[in-house]
Amino acid sequence: MNSMTTWGMPPALNPQAEFPKLCAWLASALALASFALVLATLLTSIRLPGKTGWPEAVLVLTATLATLLSLARQLPGQNVLLAAAIIGGIGGILHGVGAATAIPFGPFTCTESAGPRIFGVLAWPLPALWIIALLNSRGVARLILRP
Question: In the chain, how long is the greatest CA-to-CA distance?
């Protein structure tokens, strides 16, 4: 099949090119659904089965996934993963040092409801929150500064 299209016929879709777009949309829809679930549990008296706090954990994970997949549509995937690892690592180290010594950000603590701790100091969602905050703020800055 040649790449030329006849008049009036739409070009054939390239599934390989459409897959990252579909994944990004699916991850964004999952993040939006988990946000709606968290909002519903906060505003109503709905009691969800299982341990408390799992909707918030799902929200952090789906928001991180949606951020990384949407960025991977513009940049190579290995660059996005490396940037996420560096941001999560440095942010986690700074928060861990802050929790142990109170030097960079002053004294702060996370309650036990934040979940398990990395090295007994850092709550597990904090590196993901650093990734979400920094990469999304980068996207917002690019949107604002676009000519």
Answer: 69
Bridge-based pairing state of the strands 117-118 and 122-123: antiparallel
With a cut of 70, list the residues of the chain below it in pLDDT: 1-12
Can you give the chain as a three-state secondary structure string? Answer: CCCCCCCCCCCCCCHHHHHHHHHHHHHHHHHHHHHHHHHHHHHCCCCCCCCCCHHHHHHHHHHHHHHHHHHHCCCCHHHHHHHHHHHHHHHHHHHHHHHHHCCCCCCCCCCHHHCCEECCCEECHHHHHHHHHHHHHHHHHHHHCCC
The pLDDT of residue 65 is: 95
**Tokens at 106, concatenated:** 């002053």
Chain segment 77-113, per-residue pLDDT in tens:
899 999 999 999 999 998 888 888 888 777 777 777 7
Inter-residue contact 81 to 39 (CB < 8 Å): no
Contact 124, 116 (CB under 8 A): yes
Task: Read off the pTM.
Answer: 0.80
